[in-house]
Design brief:
Elements: E1 14-15, H1 17-24, E2 44-45, H2 48-51, H3 53-71, H4 80-106, E3 108-110, E4 117-120, E5 128-131, E6 135-138, H5 142-169, H6 173-194, H7 199-209
Antiparallel strand pairs: 1-6, 2-4, 3-6, 4-5
């Protein structure tokens, strides 16, 4: 393997704030720049959702209530497994979009792990996330950016969160890793539209991420010159099982089951 023009473990040498603010210009989907709050204000470390079963149950219950309101059904009509999968997809999307956006628009990758992100409940169901003080590695290499995002955010934050949802709600890891792939694809799709001049960098980072670790094989392959994002995933996030919902644009399903 050819040597890279950067160290295998990049030495973080700047605060992540500027890169996260640059990411936030792409839209709310990418914004983790809320103020760093203490627990008394309702903010809790994201690690709670991994270490505290009661916190996980609280989040899933809130998600079921929110989805029930949208579908005009009682919460008991919302399958816990489907609600948990959709909630995890939303959390994964926020966690991966910010560092991808920071790399594309801010030239640096925030090293976000479970210890660098805070959450608090929201009446719409999906928790609100903000990044606390974090480090960042400057880079203009898509391959390095993808490796850093994979190592710190995907492996350091998303993977343990995925395992927590998997065990607590008995969801297939194939479904959950497909959700992470969908999160990557959605982030790239938004960046391609929001910053056309940076589209090649966004696509390059997205392609590399989807070739790494557990994300490899979660989506159908794109031809080398394909500009269509997001790529179609090989699994379903179970959204169709939520009353009143449909299917996602990148779903493996082409129509609702039974439709």
């Amino acid at each position: 393997m050819a040597e890279h023009p950067w160290p295998d473990q990049g030495g973080p040498d700047l605060d992540a704030g500027a890169a996260l603010r640059a990411a936030a210009t792409a839209g709310d989907f990418f914004d983790l720049t809320g103020p760093h709050r203490d627990p008394a204000a309702g903010w809790r470390p994201l690690r709670d959702l991994v270490d505290d079963a009661a916190a996980m149950a609280e989040v899933v219950a809130a998600g079921r209530r929110a989805m029930a309101r949208i579908g005009a059904v009682p919460p008991s009509a919302v399958e816990p497994r489907a609600a948990a999968s959709v909630l995890f997809l939303g959390l994964a999307a926020r966690l991966v979009a910010a560092p991808i956006g920071a790399a594309v628009l801010g030239g640096a990758v925030p090293l976000l792990t479970l210890d660098d992100v805070l959450w608090r409940p929201h009446d719409r169901g999906s928790p609100v996330l903000v990044a606390g003080p974090a480090r960042a590695v400057p880079t203009d290499h898509p391959e390095q950016a993808a490796m850093l995002i994979r190592r710190f955010t995907v492996d350091g934050a998303v993977r343990p969160l995925l395992e927590s949802f998997r065990l607590a709600c008995r969801i297939s890891p194939r479904v959950l890793w497909g959700n992470v792939a969908s999160a990557v694809g959605g982030a790239v799709q938004v960046l391609v539209s929001a910053a056309p001049d940076r589209a090649p960098t966004a696509v390059s980072i997205g392609r590399r991420l989807l070739d790494l670790g557990q994300l490899a094989g979660t989506t159908q392959p794109l031809p080398p010159d394909a500009g269509r994002w997001p790529p179609r995933r090989r699994s379903c996030c179970l959204l169709y099982r939520v009353p009143g919902a449909g299917i996602c644009t990148d779903c493996v399903l082409s129509r609702l089951p039974g439709g």
